[in-house]
Amino acid sequence: LGIVFMNIEFFNRSSTDIRTFDISLTGIDHAVGWFIRAFVEGKFYKLFALLFGMGFAVMLLRAKEKGRPFTAWFVRRMLVLMAIGLVHQVFIWDGDILHDYAFAGLVMLGWVLLFETRSLRRFNTPTAFLKIGIVMLMLPLAVMTYGGMKIGMQTNHDAMQQQWQQELADDSAEDVKSEAVARAEREVALMTGDNYGDVVRYRIEGLPAEARKTVFFTAVLLIPIFLIGYWFVASGVLQNHEQHRRFYNSMTILGLVFGVMLSVSGLLLLQHPASELSLTLARMGFWTFNLGQLVLAAGYFGLIVVLMNYAFSQRLLNLLAPFGRMALTNYIMQSVVLVLIFHGYAAGYFGQVSRASQMWIVLAIVGVQILLSAWWLKRFRFGPLEWFWRSATYLSWQTLRVEKSNG
């Protein structure tokens, strides 16, 4: 749900600008764009990563409990997911995240196997994984904090002003900005054009850079969040959430309050014109905003678990269960529908749909998918892509249709 609210903008706008605020927006479009960035951007793929770590723990623990082999099966599962992600990346939309999760899933498997060795076995506990995950998440922030303190204690106002003047005179920053503008213009030309082959070739050209990004993304963000998700399941804190209400209440309140504060303040810094002139200010806004994403995502997660303790909200959330069981199919389907609407080799509305109007498109897509998912799963055991993923993992076609009872 959250990912499509964010992603739709970059079917209608260059993905080169994905970390920049669209300064051309005004009125209701500006308000909607600002709201999505403050409360949606970066929060939901982190929840997705948390769920991935939880799912990994569920599968691993069940396999151990039943004495089933796990490693080869999970490697096949991740390789199939990576193939689906790369097809999505190259032939549908270059904002795919599935190949990132597949690669990180293989790294996570390697991590667990490493910690099952004799020398590291004493650290192979859910609590140790939680601590390592938190330290890994906080490490970039700690480095940033140290750098900021060092600058603050060693640089007086005159030196800071001189440094800023040097930044203004630095031509390399302008060169980088010019390169980004050129990439964005090329991408817009391709997406508004009618040559699908050129678009595919452009995406293939970008695969080496995408691979480097995947490795960095995995090390800095995905593995730490996977480890935390693993802890939630392996420790029993999630399954027995009724016994941990104080923990989830605190996560919800602290996450929402401080997450909103950090996200909003970081976004205000990033969108301020001064951040284009000061590298220090831009970095401060970037790190504040990114910390806000982590904290607010934790608040959202806590809120969902808290709501599951109440019958009225549980019934409401259960309406989304079929939509969630077909998450892979729905994710790819969203991309296909949005490509057909926006790209030049399809309906060709690229750059023509206002930010506010995009929200109506998202609501329409999600509404249809919720109804379609419920209808489909009454007749079939899995979504279409979930069935393919499962069949390819087990190396045999899985039963798809729901068997009707004779009664």
Please characterize this protein's 3D structure:
With 407 residues, the protein is mainly alpha-helical. Helices cover 74% and strands 0% of the residues. The protein has 17 helices and no strands. It has helices at residues 2-7, 27-39, 44-66, 71-92, 98-115, 126-154, 157-169, 171-192, 196-205, 207-234, 245-271, 279-307, 311-318, 321-325, 327-342, 355-377, 384-394. α2 crosses α11 and α2 packs across α16. The two termini are 37 Å apart. The mean pLDDT is 92.
Which descriptors would you attach to this protein?
mainly alpha, globular, 74% helix, 407 residues, 17 helices, single chain
What's the gist of this structure?
By secondary structure, the protein is mainly alpha-helical. The chain has helices at residues 2-7, 27-39, 44-66, 71-92, 98-115, 126-154, 157-169, 171-192, 196-205, 207-234, 245-271, 279-307, 311-318, 321-325, 327-342, 355-377, 384-394.
Structural class: mainly alpha
Total of DSSP H or I helical runs spanning 4+ residues: 17
Unreliable stretches, pLDDT < 50, 5 or more residues? Answer: none
Secondary-structure element string: HHHHHHHHHHHHHHHHH
| Mean pLDDT across all amino acids | 92
Q: Whole-Å distance between the termini?
A: 37 Å
Morphology: globular
Radius of gyration: 23 Å
How many beta-strand segments?
A: 0
Helix content: over 70%
Residues in β-strands, percent? under 5%
Main sheet?
none
